[in-house]
Amino acid sequence: MVYRIFVEKKKELANEARALYNDAKAFLGISSLTDVRLFNRYDADDITKELFELSINTVFSEPQTDITYENIDTEGACAVFAVEYLPGQFDQRADSAAQCIQLISRGDRPTVRSAKIY
Fold first, then answer.
1. Which neighbouring-strand residues pair with 97?
2. Burial state string for 53-84 with b = 16 or more CB within 10 A and e = fewer than 16
């Protein structure tokens, strides 16, 4: 079974989202833009539910700086899109997460995919 988690930086620490917001307003001239939110999405396969739950706060996120969601609310968003690596392309974020989970479980390496949701 594939397990999914969404991770977002806390508002005061969301520097990448803030920079993207400023760039969109300044360089693209999108003056009606009110906010930009940025999520990292992780899909983990070949993993137990217990190991996935343990990995949420140890591998996929830092509880001090991140907020995790099982689902994200896109109500009221004018646009939502995701960017992910194509099959065969190397995804360093997903590979690092898979290696960390393998170290925690001391078992086989799970399959992890990641994407950025804007």
1. none
2. eebbeebbbeeeebebeeeeeeeeeeeeeeee
Residue-wise pLDDT tens for the chain (118 aa)?
Answer: 899 999 999 999 988 999 988 988 888 888 888 888 999 999 999 999 999 999 999 999 999 999 999 998 888 777 888 999 998 899 999 999 999 999 998 989 999 999 999 9
7-20 burial string, b = 16+ CB within 10 Å, else e? Answer: bbbeeeebeebbeb
Q: What is the DSSP string of the chain?
A: --EEEEEEE-GGG-HHHHHHHHHHHHTS--TT------EEEEEEES--HHHHHHHIIIII--TTTEEEESS---TT-S---EEEPPTTS--HHHHHHHHHHHHHHTSPPPEEEEEEE-
